[in-house]
Automatic annotation (TrEMBL), chain A:
<dbReference type="InterPro" id="IPR011033">
    <property type="entry name" value="PRC_barrel-like_sf"/>
</dbReference>
<protein>
    <submittedName>
        <fullName>PRC-barrel domain protein</fullName>
    </submittedName>
</protein>
<feature type="domain" description="PRC-barrel">
    <location>
        <begin position="96"/>
        <end position="159"/>
    </location>
</feature>
<feature type="domain" description="PRC-barrel">
    <location>
        <begin position="5"/>
        <end position="72"/>
    </location>
</feature>
<dbReference type="InterPro" id="IPR027275">
    <property type="entry name" value="PRC-brl_dom"/>
</dbReference>
<dbReference type="Pfam" id="PF05239">
    <property type="entry name" value="PRC"/>
</dbReference>
TrEMBL record, chain B:
<dbReference type="InterPro" id="IPR011033">
    <property type="entry name" value="PRC_barrel-like_sf"/>
</dbReference>
<dbReference type="InterPro" id="IPR027275">
    <property type="entry name" value="PRC-brl_dom"/>
</dbReference>
<protein>
    <recommendedName>
        <fullName>PRC-barrel domain-containing protein</fullName>
    </recommendedName>
</protein>
<feature type="domain" description="PRC-barrel">
    <location>
        <begin position="85"/>
        <end position="126"/>
    </location>
</feature>
<dbReference type="Pfam" id="PF05239">
    <property type="entry name" value="PRC"/>
</dbReference>
Amino acid sequence: MTVYMRASEITKKPVVTLAGDDLGQVKDLVFDASTGSIRCFTLAGRGLLAGPLHRALLWRNVHALGPDAVMVRDESALEEDDTAAQPSAKEPAGGNVLGVAIMTRSGARLGTVTDAVVEAGKTPVVAGYEIETPEHRRVLLPVAGPVTVSGERVLVADATAQYRAGDLGGFGTAAESLRIRLKEDSQGD
Amino acid sequence: MLFTKARGKAVMDLATAETVGTVAACTVAPSPARIAGLRLRTRGRGHRTLEWSDVQSFGPDAIAVEEASRIRDEKNIDPGNGAHPVHDPVGKAVLTETGLMKGIVTDVEFDERSGRIRHLLTDEEQIPGDELLGVGSYAAVVTASQ
């Protein structure tokens, strides 16, 4: 079964090696504004008084993302410093997807991004976004097919607007329906 | 044998026939899953460690060692060594390699001749020793069953 979780739920989760040692906990997520996915985590030490670790964990070095821990192979999965977490010069928006408007390709504004929905497991991916609609409701919107991201907006396929879920329990069904719909659309062409 | 049954057993020196300590905890190493060492309570402060390879025999009432000089102060053991106290699984969380928590290790079932671990026990289930990937400061990590 596919497990979905909000990206914000990943913060505070321990980062544990396959040997069972904890390296720290997730402090923050850094989004990649050019792809809309997560680029890396920043880490903090474990315990009450521990400060930031200044070592980034790149998304691709995550062994698995689970409901109780972020697993990595060993300590070498961490970067030596946290430069990966700094916004690069190419991204004037500050490298964040949160707060950005989400629009369909035909130009309808669906809302603003408040969180990302992550598919947990061995190849974790951003499967959708939590958005705040113009009516100030929070809904979960699956994304599939071509997604274009800039510092100003996230562009999604038109069909996306019809598939939304109120909570994570319904998100899997919405994501699956959207995938089937987009597949049918592409076959119809 | 269950580790909780081994706890408190005397460790005797075969050269002097004296008791050198009692078993307090065990440490484990993966692939193959086995007891790597025993933590002993001895007279004086701190714990001492006996590596499994130095155990002469693991009897029903006592554990025999050939030379008590093989028992080391655990401060002198490298954390990478399987006998280091960080590899004691009892009381630690069981995490699958996909990051799912499966309970707390309550006991270890092992073969007292070879030291091989048959099962890690939690309140809910018995996890085969073959599934163990490692025990560290935070958790015992096991392979995901599916």
